[in-house]
Structures
1.
Amino acid sequence: MNGICVENEFIQVTKVIPESPAHICGVLPGDIIVYINKECVLGTWREDVLTLLDSFSVGDIVNFQLCRGYALQETMDSRIYIVRGRDPSNLFASATRGGAWHYLLVDKDKKEAFLENIKTRNLDVADYGRILCSGWGEYPPQDIKIKMNEEYGAKIEIHSHS
């Protein structure tokens, strides 16, 4: 289960990992964490909650009390991915230190297909959305990452395809 803090008012679940204890218990994205082991965390700073969670050891029983929150809206940054291409011939990889990369804004209606197909086959990323920025090398340079974060608030997942 992942969470975000909204203006130090509450921590809201943003993602539930399939087959995790949270998933099995019915936790949903949008749920709000109210108590952790009988300690109220409403209005608590995110860092303090992380410190509390870090205090538990593997195997400890941790009880959460949640409030069913509102459904989270998909944001543009949840559809932006860095896609790294592979160069099987190594024709470009040696000269560019890693091949090509693309920032891709995936179309809403194509996101599920993109996430499935990126795992298993060659694909033309332009078929799944709009390429926002491209370049050569293993990863985008820092100035490009900063620009993408400023323009799109992008929290980027990196995907490789062949």
2.
Amino acid sequence: MEQVIDLLKIEANQYKIIKANEIVFDESIRKYCQANTCGLYNKSWVCSENNRKIFDLDRVKSFDKVLIFNQIYKLEDSFDYESMVTSGKEFTLLIRKVVGMLNQLQIVHVPFGLGGCDLCSECEFPQKACKHPSKLIYPVESIDIMVSKTATNNGFKYINGINNVTYFSMIFIKDDKNHV
């Protein structure tokens, strides 16, 4: 786990390992998904209405710890959608680096991050099963995590000024005395 922390010291703005019971859940968060505010609802397995059941996401409620980290990205202005997309992809790469390290360390985990999935050029939802279930990063909204409250309750700054976007990841970890 030390290698993961070393990476986050360099590549994340803030990071912290918290107890899983410090995550704030709010069932109203899922309504944003159902309202399709991002345009991705029911367009991929990871954003499907049954993703929680399909991928057994409620299992994380039995996990002990959560690695939470964020990164702040500069925008030209608050309408700079292109930079938001680019920085979102960059942040997802950071999550994938962390997940890769956790895999190497054989630490049981379930990663959450930005909404949507970019593993396949086109998702085969709902015709065929997901080709890469072990590589998925689930949207925090899919499990009703209230990121703003969880972040601020744990000393993270949620809003980081004008012309900035802040992305968060929360990786649920099974407690293993040898690793965490």
